[in-house]
From TrEMBL:
<feature type="binding site">
    <location>
        <position position="79"/>
    </location>
    <ligand>
        <name>substrate</name>
    </ligand>
</feature>
<feature type="active site" description="Proton donor">
    <location>
        <position position="105"/>
    </location>
</feature>
<feature type="site" description="Transition state stabilizer">
    <location>
        <position position="18"/>
    </location>
</feature>
<dbReference type="InterPro" id="IPR036441">
    <property type="entry name" value="DHquinase_II_sf"/>
</dbReference>
<keyword id="KW-0057">Aromatic amino acid biosynthesis</keyword>
<dbReference type="InterPro" id="IPR001874">
    <property type="entry name" value="DHquinase_II"/>
</dbReference>
<feature type="binding site">
    <location>
        <begin position="106"/>
        <end position="107"/>
    </location>
    <ligand>
        <name>substrate</name>
    </ligand>
</feature>
<comment type="function">
    <text>Catalyzes a trans-dehydration via an enolate intermediate.</text>
</comment>
<feature type="binding site">
    <location>
        <position position="116"/>
    </location>
    <ligand>
        <name>substrate</name>
    </ligand>
</feature>
<feature type="active site" description="Proton acceptor">
    <location>
        <position position="23"/>
    </location>
</feature>
<comment type="similarity">
    <text>Belongs to the type-II 3-dehydroquinase family.</text>
</comment>
<feature type="binding site">
    <location>
        <position position="92"/>
    </location>
    <ligand>
        <name>substrate</name>
    </ligand>
</feature>
<dbReference type="Pfam" id="PF01220">
    <property type="entry name" value="DHquinase_II"/>
</dbReference>
<feature type="binding site">
    <location>
        <position position="85"/>
    </location>
    <ligand>
        <name>substrate</name>
    </ligand>
</feature>
<comment type="subunit">
    <text>Homododecamer.</text>
</comment>
<keyword id="KW-0456">Lyase</keyword>
<protein>
    <recommendedName>
        <fullName>3-dehydroquinate dehydratase</fullName>
        <ecNumber>4.2.1.10</ecNumber>
    </recommendedName>
</protein>
Amino acid sequence: MRTIHILNGPNLNLLGTREPGVYGTATLADVEQRCADVATALGCRAECRQSNHEGRLVDWLQEIGREVAEGRSIGVVLNPGAYTHTSVAIRDAIAGAQVPVVEIHVSNVHAREEFRRHSYVTPVARGVIAGLGPIGYELAIRALVEG
Ligand SMILES: O=C1C[C@@](O)(C(=O)O)C[C@@H](O)[C@@H]1O
């Protein structure tokens, strides 16, 4: 059974209590449970991880690149959090490890501050989902598995 990875970046461990007017009230555990259920329904396994550390996300992306090359993984649903707007290292890890990535944002980053409109990840992602809340993760999993 192939794995689909769900990686969440900084501060997404605070989902549910963090700015609920922007990010809603679902917790990260709720989101991860939903991802696990959708993956199972699609015949694969979800592995969900979160880190507040850029280098750890880079390490995980490199590992996943090896899994993809060996046919053990389908790719990554990645919410890079604030690193979306700052991280050349995460962009380079995705490109260098040739990981299929769907970029996801809970909030509509294009309707917020100007600095959230630029993403270093988008040019190396298969696609982007933003502003649909937790259901975006489900759509991203479907896109990777069925796409
Ligand atoms: O941490 C986050 C969360 C976010 O990626 C989202 O899911 O909407 C949007 C980012 O701008 C922000 O820094």
